[in-house]
Amino acid sequence: MAIQRPKGTQDHLPDGSPKLSLDTRAVAFQHVQDVSRRVLERAGAQFLATPVFEEAELVKRGVGGSTDIVRKEMFTVYYFGDHGGFILRPEGTAGLVRAYLQNGLKQLPAPLKLWTHGPMFRAENVQKGRLRQFHQVDYEVLGSTDPLVDAEAIALMVDVVAALGLTGVRVKLGSIGDPADRETYNAYLRGLFGAHVDRLSDDSKERLERNPMRILDSKSAGDQALIAELGVKPMLDFLGDDARAHFEAVQTYLNSWDVAYDIDPSIVRGLDYYRRTAWELHHEGVGAKSALGGGGRYDGLAEQLGGPLVPGIGWAFGIERLLLAMEAEGLDVPGSGGPLLYVAALDVANVGHAATLAIAARRVARAEFAYRAVKPGTAFRDAERRGARLVALIGSDEVARDVVSVKDLATGVQMTVGTRDLPAYLAGHLEPSGSVAQAAPAQENA
Ligand code: AMP
């Protein structure tokens, strides 16, 4: 058997490939990127791309040394003579904030809205919707603590999924307070879980020392049973006045824009640099535990990376998860379509001439040609297989008269067009957007 792709990765395939699903269709990925671009750039976000590998230290500080991502799921990059200290990025925020600091983007007007998309890497246990290379769309806003920025970020995330046609999406909104609020909460959790250390998983025993809030995030069934049994109070009960006012302001904005959300006290982001607003986007078709995306405020991150204090907030969603949700809702994305024009020569001497015509036609529209001489029946069949709208056949007669005879496969109409008039004729078949126009419905005979 030929060499296979690594486990947990996917190929993004052209339309027409056998066994195609929405989350492996290249045009579907492009569609999500295009829709995200449209929604986010209309809101003033600018595109920024960062490398797929970064210093390990950036990922450790940016994602947190106590997270599963850093402890168990990092892909380390080695190359000859190097210190082995690079990591394939597991998420986009740390790299984006690094780029902001390193390139002096602080000088741009704040709040600065940035967005990006690209592959992320985590060595996870592979299952449906959980890959080792997956793709995210990220939106980040730097330089403001205003709750209006939080509400706008959440609304934009909802706008992107709505623009994709998804309806079964819910926002789960929470707040993790300010650092002092979290200290109070962690002290409460230490007291509570401290009396039951023997029942905690090994991971959670360690979390009890370092960061008890992360116990609430535990994937261990035993830990979750203990949490339920102890009736642990949520972080929301521990918000200080400032964080509570911020949380309420975010909700007031969302309410005024009719953005639906549920308050979810179980949302915890146990990392030190997270502040206040945190949320997740869920879809019934992808399963309760599998979020389409999530976001949060991270005012402490830039300092954590060795920079000045730069407040920030952002979100990411997984493109594969979005596509699975779209598939679950029976949504489809437009295919890439076929060429407007397919040119075929009827004899060997004119193959080059057919190619020249098609190449000239590309100034107007997508045009392809046959690489060998074919009979008219074969030309029509080949054109149909490629999804072409118009077929031009070139024989010696057409070359002598400097014309092409064109058949419109949608209407069956056949006509002769002067070579020089071909561009205008083709332009008549295009929408203003540049896509091929639909054929006008055939006239009913009276
Ligand atoms: P996170 O950075 O963990 O908050 O993830 C943000 C989003 O990225 C998630 O809600 C998923 O949609 C997506 N995502 C995260 N990990 C994976 C993965 N291993 N496979 C596919 N999508 C993922």
Automatic annotation (TrEMBL):
UniProt: L-histidine binding residues: E91, G92, T93, R122, Q136, E140, R269, Y273, Y274
GO cellular component: cytoplasm
SUPFAM superfamilies reported in the protein's UniProt record: Class II aaRS ABD-related, Class II aaRS and biotin synthetases
Catalytic function, reaction form: tRNA(His) + L-histidine + ATP = L-histidyl-tRNA(His) + AMP + diphosphate + H(+)
Enzyme Commission numbers on file: 6.1.1.21
Residues covered by the Aminoacyl-transfer RNA synthetases class-II family profile domain: 32-334
GO terms of molecular function: ATP binding; histidine-tRNA ligase activity
Keywords assigned: Aminoacyl-tRNA synthetase, ATP-binding, Cytoplasm, Ligase, Nucleotide-binding, Protein biosynthesis
Biological processes per GO annotation: histidyl-tRNA aminoacylation
Cellular compartment(s): Cytoplasm
Highest taxon, organism lineage: Bacteria
Family according to the record: Belongs to the class-II aminoacyl-tRNA synthetase family.
HAMAP family: His_tRNA_synth
Assembly information from the UniProt record: Homodimer.
The protein's name in its UniProt record: Histidine--tRNA ligase
Organism, as annotated: Deinococcus metalli
Gene: hisS
